[in-house]
Every structure is written in C-alpha cells, then in structure tokens.
Amino acid sequence: MAHPRKAFRKAVVAALKGWPDLAGYDVAEARLASVDRAADRAISVYTPSENSRRDGRGNPLSREVQAVVVGHVRASDPQDAADDLAEIVEAVQRNDESFGGTCRTSHLSSTEVSLDDGEVPGAVVTLTISAFIQSGPAAS
Question: Which of 10, 51, 64, 74 could join 122 via S-S bond, C-beta 3.0 to 4.6 A?
C-alpha cells in the first residue's frame, strides 16, 4: 500500500493526464526543474509538505497534504494562457474532490502567476491544492 501522500500525488497526476483539455500538455510527477522548460506546455506535480496530527489516543492520523501543480505555458498572451490553465486545473480538482478516494476532500488553497517577457513570452502558474487525509489504524 502506497504512502497516503504518494497515493494522492499520483492521483492528481492521473487526473490531469486524463483531462481532455490538457491533452497537449506534458504532465510529470516531478518538480518543474526536471520538466523540459523549452516545451510550450508542461505541468509538474509534487507534494512539498504535509502537516499531521492525532486527536487523542486511538484515533487515526489526520493529514493535510499540499500538492503543488506548476504549469509552464508559452503564448502571445501569457497572462491569459496562465489563467486558462488555472481554470482547467481548478475544474479537474472540483470534478473529483477526493481524487479517486485518496483523500476525504480537497480545495484550491492558492494560485500564483509569474510572467516571463523574454524572447518567447511565457508564464508559470503555480496552484496549491490542499487535501485532507485520515490514514492508518488507530495507535494502541
């Protein structure tokens, strides 16, 4: 059985890969640095943090896991392209808030856009999805 954080991350990647509007994107389970930055459309997913707590002896562990979805787009209007990609990722999250049962629920907790006015205009949009997971048997 996969670690709950790993299972959630893989489910986010699978949901993005399976979404028809993202068919032209290279979606990877990795940090953006390992994704081909020359690509016109790429997405990376990683889980940089997790907070956990147990409410009393005998209760399961409650986890809040952060999945970071980083989209890299090149377009004549990078701001619109970044907003369009954010809208699609938000739709994926809303479509199945439990990501195939890997979490109780999830929500979009932040979005950031960084524009690059270089030779080929582009943008990086970073969306953080927070998921709530109860895992493991209660401690005895």
Answer: 74
Alpha-carbon gap, residue 56 to 81, rounded angstroms? 47
The rounded percent of the chain whose pLDDT value lies above 70 is 89
* 4-52+59-135, CATH topology level: STM4215-like (3.30.2000)
Q: In sequence order, what are the residues at sequence separation of 6 or more whose Cβ sits closer than 8 angstroms to the Cβ of residue 60? A: 54, 134, 135, 136, 137, 138
In angstroms, the CA 14 to CA 71 distance is: 15
Query: What was the pLDDT predicted at 140?
Result: 39
Q: How far apart are CA 42 and CA 87, in angstroms?
A: 15
AA identity, residue 81? A
Domain assignments of the chain as residue spans, ordered by start: 4-52+59-135
Q: pLDDT band at residue 89, thresholds of 50, 70 and 90?
A: very high
> Whose CA is closest to 95, among 33, 25, 16, 39?
16
Q: How far from 70 is each of 58, 79, 105, 114, 135, CA to CA, in Å?
A: 38, 15, 21, 11, 27
